[in-house]
C-alpha cells in the first residue's frame, strides 16, 4: 500500500456538556491512500460527521481535540495554526455537505460562488476565475455551463446544486474530498449520476474521497474500504467486499441484515427483517470502559460490560473491536 | 374474512393546482400533480406507490384521504364514493381512512401527552364510550410496542422510532379500512427502520389491515408491498405484482429507476447500468405524448405526440409504453 495521504492516529475529541466532558470521538485511527475511496458508515449520532469536522478543524465551539494526530501528507493538522488551516481548507482538503440548498449562498450566482473559491485560494483575477468556474461546471456535467453560471441556487434542481457543491469543493484540486451524505436529499436516479461523477473525478484528478453515509449499498457501490463507527468509536474496518460478505462485529452484521436489500434474485416469501434492538446510547454514556454496543448485542458476555474491546486484526486489513472471537453470521451476500 | 369489494378503488383521479398568475389577464396554468390515476387495493394487501420526488405519489395519497381537493375522478372506500362527501358525512368517513405521516417530529402535537394524542382520534371521531376509550388507548400502546408508562410522556421524550409508533397507534385507533403510509420510515435511522417495517407487517397480519404504502426506497417497497405502481409526473407508467416488477420490469423508466438503486449484492452490481439522464418535465401543463419521452433512450416519433395508455401486458402487469 502506498503512503497514506491522510492518516489519523488515536484521535479523541471531547465535548463539554453539563454532565462533564464526553469523548464524541474516542481513540479513532484510520488512514486513506491517494486515489482511495473510504466509506464511513453508522447510524446518526455515531460520530461520522464529527470525524470529518475534526479533520477540517471546523468543530463546534464546545468540541476540542484532546489527543491524537491528523496528518495530511505528513503535516499534523491538530497543531496547525488557524491561518494555516485556512490555507489548507479548499486547497488541500474540502468538503461536500448533505444539504446543497443550505450550503450555497442564495444571493450569489453559482458562477460567482465557484469563482470566489478560486480568487481566495489561488489568487486568480475576476475574469480568469469566471472562465475557470465555467470549466468546472462543465467538468461536473452541467449542461450549458456558461449560462448556468449566472443562475442562482434556487433556479437549479437538487442534483444540479449538488454538482455545483462538488465543483466548488474540487475547484482547487484538493488531495482529499470529504463527502458527508452527499446524496441523502436526492432521488436515486440523481444519486447514481453523482456517484458516477465522483468516480470519474477521482480517476481524473487522483483525489482521495471519504464518503460518509448510513447506507451500506452506497458504500458497496462507491468505496474500496469501509470503516464502521458506533458511539464515537471505530468498531470495524476492512475492504468493502470482505466486510459485506463476512462482517465480524455484531453491529456491522446488524447494519447489513436490517436493511431490505434489492437482490439479484427475489424470493416469493419474505422473512421479517433483522432488528437491532434499542437505539444508539445517549452521548453521556460515551467513553465508558465497556463495549458501548453491549446493550444491543446478542453475543454479549461479562467482559463486554467491564472492558472496552480494542481493535484486533482478524484477517489482512480486517480489523474489528469485539471480544467475541466467533460471531456467527447468516450470510446475506454470497 | 374476504371482502368481495376492493378496499380502495380509485378511478381516473386528477388533482390540478392552479399556479399564480403573473398579471390579471393571464390564463391560469395548472400543475398536473396527479393526472388520471387508477388503482385498486384488495383487502389485506399492500399497494406500493413509488416514484421520484414530484411524481405525485404523496398528492395521490392526500387526495384519497380527502386532505387535498381532487379535481375529478372517483375514490371508493369499501365501495363507497368519498370524493363528493361534505360536512358530517365526511367526518364520519374519516374513520375508514387513516394516515401515517413521514415526519414523526412535526406530525405530533408537542403539547399533548402521548396518551391524549392517541385518544384524541377516538374523541374526535366519537368512537366507543368515554370510559372504553382509555382501555382502547392502552391496547393500542401495547399493539405498537409501547408500554403504559409511555402514555404520560410528551412527544419530545420519545425517540424517532417510538414517535412513529405513536403515529401508527393514532392511525389505528379508529379501526380504519385503509391505512395510508406516506414514507413512514424515511426519516428514521436504518436500524430503527427495520423495527417499524416489521411492526407494520405484524399489525397487518394480526389485524387484517390494508395499506397504501408510499415510498421512494425501492428496497423497502420490495419488502413491504404485494403490488407496486410506479408513478412518473402524475401518471402511473407501470403497475405489477412484486415479483414481476422487480424480476421483469418492462417500462424503460422502471428499468432505469431499478438500475439506479445502489446495491450491496455483488451479483446485482455487476450488471450493466441503464441510466436515466436529464430531469423530469415540468408538471405545469405537461406536454402531449409520453411524459418520459424526453428522457427515454428508446423514444420514437410517436412517443412525443401520442399519450400511451396503461395496458395489460401480462396477467399481473400493466405498462404505459408504445414500444411494449
Give a brief rundown of this model.
Chain A has 334 residues and is α/β, with parallel strands linked by helices.
Describe this structure in words.
- The complex is a heterodimer of chains A (334) and B (324).
- Chain A has 334 residues and is of the alpha/beta class.
- Helices cover 32% and strands 23% of the residues of chain A.
- Chain A has an eight-stranded mixed beta sheet, with helices on both faces.
- In chain A, a hairpin with a 2-residue loop joins strand 9 (225-230) and strand 10.
- Chain B is of the alpha/beta class and 324 residues long.
- Chain B has one domain: 3-Layer(aba) Sandwich (Rossmann fold), CATH 3.40.50.300.
- Chain B has helices at residues 57-64, 87-93, 114-124, 130-143, 160-172, 190-207, 218-224, 242-247, 252-260, 266-269; strands spanning 8-18, 30-41, 46-50, 72-77, 80-81, 97-100, 178-182, 210-214, 227-232, 235-241, 311-314, 317-319.
- In chain B, a hairpin with a 2-residue loop joins strand 11 (311-314) and strand 12 (317-319).
- The mean pLDDT of chain B is 91.
- Classes of the chains: A alpha/beta (334), B alpha/beta (324).
Lay out the secondary structure.
The complex is a heterodimer of chains A (334) and B (324).
Chain A: E1 6-17, E2 20-32, E3 37-41, H1 48-56, E4 63-72, E5 75-76, H2 82-88, E6 93-96, H3 100-103, H4 110-122, H5 126-139, H6 145-148, H7 158-170, E7 176-180, H8 188-205, E8 208-213, H9 216-222, E9 225-230, E10 233-239, H10 240-245, H11 250-257, H12 302-306, E11 312-315, E12 318-320
Helix pairs in contact in A: 4-5, 5-7, 7-8
Chain B: E1 8-18, E2 30-41, E3 46-50, H1 57-64, E4 72-77, E5 80-81, H2 87-93, E6 97-100, H3 114-124, H4 130-143, H5 160-172, E7 178-182, H6 190-207, E8 210-214, H7 218-224, E9 227-232, E10 235-241, H8 242-247, H9 252-260, H10 266-269, E11 311-314, E12 317-319
Parallel strand pairs in B: 3-8, 3-9, 6-7, 7-8
Antiparallel strand pairs in B: 1-2, 1-4, 4-5, 9-10, 10-12, 11-12
Helix pairs in contact in B: 3-4, 3-5, 4-5, 5-6
Amino acid at each position: 500500500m502506498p503512503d497514506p495521504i491522510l492518516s489519523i492516529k488515536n484521535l479523541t475529541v471531547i465535548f463539554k456538556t453539563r454532565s462533564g466532558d464526553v469523548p464524541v470521538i474516542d481513540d479513532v485511527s484510520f488512514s486513506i491512500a491517494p486515489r482511495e475511496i473510504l466509506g464511513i458508515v453508522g447510524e446518526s449520532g455515531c460520530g461520522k460527521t464529527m470525524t470529518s469536522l475534526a479533520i477540517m478543524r471546523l468543530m463546534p465551539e464546545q468540541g476540542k481535540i484532546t489527543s491524537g494526530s491528523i496528518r495530511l501528507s505528513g503535516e499534523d493538522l491538530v497543531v496547525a495554526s488557524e491561518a494555516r488551516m485556512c490555507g489548507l481548507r479548499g486547497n488541500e482538503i474540502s468538503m461536500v455537505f448533505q444539504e446543497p440548498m443550505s450550503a450555497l449562498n442564495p444571493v450569489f450566482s453559482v458562477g460567482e460562488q465557484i469563482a470566489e473559491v478560486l480568487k481566495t485560494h489561488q489568487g486568480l483575477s475576476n475574469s480568469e476565475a469566471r472562465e475557470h468556474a465555467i470549466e468546472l461546471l462543465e467538468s461536473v456535467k452541467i449542461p450549458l455551463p456558461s449560462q448556468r453560471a449566472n443562475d442562482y441556487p434556487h433556479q437549479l434542481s437538487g442534483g444540479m446544486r449538488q454538482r455545483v457543491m462538488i465543483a466548488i469543493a474540487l475547484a482547487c484540486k484538493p488531495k482529499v474530498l470529504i463527502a458527508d451524505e452527499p446524496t441523502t436529499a436526492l432521488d436515486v436516479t440523481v444519486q447514481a449520476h453523482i456517484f458516477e461523477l465522483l468516480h470519474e473525478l477521482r480517476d481524473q484528478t487522483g483525489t482521495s474521497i471519504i464518503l460518509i453515509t448510513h447506507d451500506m449499498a452506497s458504500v458497496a457501490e462507491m468505496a474500496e474500504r469501509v470503516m464502521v463507527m458506533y458511539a464515537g468509536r471505530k468498531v470495524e474496518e476492512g475492504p468493502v467486499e470482505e466486510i459485506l460478505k463476512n462482517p465480524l462485529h455484531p453491529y456491522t452484521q446488524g447494519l447489513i441484515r436490517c436493511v431490505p436489500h434489492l437482490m439479484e434474485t427475489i424470493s416469493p416469501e419474505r422473512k421479517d427483517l433483522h432488528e437491532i434492538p434499542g437505539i444508539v446510547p445517549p452521548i453521556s454514556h460515551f467513553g465508558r470502559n465497556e463495549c458501548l454496543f453491549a446493550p444491543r448485542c446478542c453475543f454479549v458476555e461479562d467482559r463486554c460490560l467491564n472492558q472496552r474491546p480494542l481493535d484486533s486484526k482478524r484477517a489482512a486489513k480486517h480489523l474489528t473491536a469485539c471480544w467475541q472471537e466467533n460471531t456467527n453470521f447468516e450470510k446475506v451476500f454470497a | 374474512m374476504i371482502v368481495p369489494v376492493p378496499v380502495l378503488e380509485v378511478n381516473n383521479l386528477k388533482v390540478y393546482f392552479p399556479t399564480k398568475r403573473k398579471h390579471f389577464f393571464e390564463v391560469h396554468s395548472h400543475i398536473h400533480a396527479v393526472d388520471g390515476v387508477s388503482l385498486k387495493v384488495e383487502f389485506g394487501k399492500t399497494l406500493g406507490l413509488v416514484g421520484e420526488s414530484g411524481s405525485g405519489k404523496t398528492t395521490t395519497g392526500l387526495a384519497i384521504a380527502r386532505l387535498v381537493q381532487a379535481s375529478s375522478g372517483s375514490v371508493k372506500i369499501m365501495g363507497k364514493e368519498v370524493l363528493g362527501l361534505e360536512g358530517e358525512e365526511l367526518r364520519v368517513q374519516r374513520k375508514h381512512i387513516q394516515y401515517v405521516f413521514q415526519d414523526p417530529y412535526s406530525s405530533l402535537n408537542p403539547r399533548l401527552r402521548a396518551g391524549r394524542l392517541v385518544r384524541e382520534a377516538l374523541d374526535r371521531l366519537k368512537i366507543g364510550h368515554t370510559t372504553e376509550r382509555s382501555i382502547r388507548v392502552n391496547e393500542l400502546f401495547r399493539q405498537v410496542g409501547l408500554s403504559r408508562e409511555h402514555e404520560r410522556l410528551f412527544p419530545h421524550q420519545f425517540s424517532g422510532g417510538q414517535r412513529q409508533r405513536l403515529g401508527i397507534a393514532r392511525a389505528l385507533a379508529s379501526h380504519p379500512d385503509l391505512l395510508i403510509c406516506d414514507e413512514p420510515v424515511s426519516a428514521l435511522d436504518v436500524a430503527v427502520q427495520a423495527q417499524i417495517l416489521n411492526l407494520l407487517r405484524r399489525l397487518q397480519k394480526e389485524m387484517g389491515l390494508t395499506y397504501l404504502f408510499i415510498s421512494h426506497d425501492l428496497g423497502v417497497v420490495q419488502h413491504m408491498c404485494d403490488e407496486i405502481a410506479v408513478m412518473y409526473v402524475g401518471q402511473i407508467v407501470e403497475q405489477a405484482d412484486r415479483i414481476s416488477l422487480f424480476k421483469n420490469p418492462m417500462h424503460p423508466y422502471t428499468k432505469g429507476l431499478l438500475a439506479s438503486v445502489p446495491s450491496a449484492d455483488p451479483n446485482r452490481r455487476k450488471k450493466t447500468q441503464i441510466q436515466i439522464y436529464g430531469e423530469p418535465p415540468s408538471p405545469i401543463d405537461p406536454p402531449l405524448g409520453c411524459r418520459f419521452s424526453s428522457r427515454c433512450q428508446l423514444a420514437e416519433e410517436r412517443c412525443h405526440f401520442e399519450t400511451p395508455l396503461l395496458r395489460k401486458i401480462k396477467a399481473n402487469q400493466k405498462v404505459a409504453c408504445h414500444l411494449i
